[in-house]
Write a structure and sequence with these properties.
Subunit structure (chains A, B): Homodimer.
GO molecular function, one term (chains A, B): transmembrane ascorbate ferrireductase activity
Largest sheet of chain A: none
Number of helices of chain A: 8
EC number (chains A, B): 7.2.1.3
Subcellular location (chains A, B): Late endosome membrane; Lysosome membrane
Catalytic activity (chains A, B): Fe(3+)(out) + L-ascorbate(in) = monodehydro-L-ascorbate radical(in) + Fe(2+)(out) + H(+)
Shape of chain A: globular
Number of domains of chain A: 1
Order of helices and strands of chain A: HHHHHHHH
Oligomer: homodimer
Number of strands of chain A: 0
Strand content of chain A: under 5%
Radius of gyration of chain A: 19 Å
Chain lengths: 241, 241
Amino acid sequence: MRSPVYFYTSFLLCLVLGIICVIFVCYWNTRWRGGFAWDGSGLQFNWHPVLMVTGMVVLYGYAIVLYRIPLAWGWNKQPWKLLHAGLLLLALLLSVLGLCAVFNFHNTLSIAHLYSLHSWLGISTAALFTCQWVLGLVAFIFPCSPVFFRKLLKPIHIWMGSIIFILSIASCISGINEKLFLVLDRNSTQRYSALPPEAVHANSLGVLIVGFGLVVLNILSRQTCEWSEPGHLEPLLHEES
Amino acid sequence: MRSPVYFYTSFLLCLVLGIICVIFVCYWNTRWRGGFAWDGSGLQFNWHPVLMVTGMVVLYGYAIVLYRIPLAWGWNKQPWKLLHAGLLLLALLLSVLGLCAVFNFHNTLSIAHLYSLHSWLGISTAALFTCQWVLGLVAFIFPCSPVFFRKLLKPIHIWMGSIIFILSIASCISGINEKLFLVLDRNSTQRYSALPPEAVHANSLGVLIVGFGLVVLNILSRQTCEWSEPGHLEPLLHEES
């Protein structure tokens, strides 16, 4: 079960599930929600789920499993660090765009901002993600950061990385659920409770996101204890960097 | 940060936050949803959030941090095992009652079952929890279970324990969000977007549940690597049992 075949199969599954999630969220918003625009209308809102799922779940998930690839444990850590930080920067930029999409849509239609539990959780997760990225940059990329600061931040950075990912997934699940209640029950003849094709598709997207999350968390769980035994190379963030 | 004071402060925080969550969910359903009954009406539905939060989040959370209490690492594991299994059995029974409450309510009002993403996630989590409990009983409590089976199941049991807890929290967040959209936007003059007192209270319940989850996951993260170093006693489930 813990053989390299199992290990790399998990990575492949993670990669494929992530791509399927992006395809599913794009298809949902193209096929049933009318596609995309940047004009303050509902078509601008449609960027929100696409950018949040792509940024805060898929790219973020890819970035945090990067250090579990045995190839990343060699002596030259800098390229992997930059790839990790770069993927997370892209994830952060997409998430900020995704938030702009929904704020602009709410402004245009005079809808209140940040009232639902989904929005409270989502905005807190995005804020935590931003702090985590900035602190990670300062501590682990800037060459002048003191060693004691890296040592202090490292376990917090690793733990917070998983927590932000879990919170992102919880935000996505509540967001998909909320969106389906809002669009199917208010403006459509097909109620959510009748499970029309859009509801089945979007619910399946939620299931796929949870599945992707489980694969990522499973890869993350095979970490220090297993790989830092004497004779093994340690994952990158567990070395002094 | 890793001193016994920090360790026991986390347990105290976990205990207190769990109790506050239960008080908040009871107050929500008493103050704004009309209280409780078992008659197929909306008052029966009100048992659903109370029992799910109490069972699948709070009692479940208490049960899974039990093995991280250093007191539990002594030679006599049996009482702790039974307490762990007992707390989880109580959590399971409350969850089943919570599910009965919503199924009976839906039957009475001819509402379709299991259509929302919240319900898909929630029922899957409850099913996983049931399998986990039964397998845990067979493997770790029954004296005749073979050692190879315990060894095989132990890491899966520990990992699945955390995953079920995370899924429970995601289910609760999406459930609270869903309930507020259903009751505030459909049947009330006070819309969710206006953030009436009920919405602030229930959103705060969601935040408290997330906070409780973070404390539990933080306690769980301080496990094998930290405490199984030579000279330390190992947590109970990490010994051969």
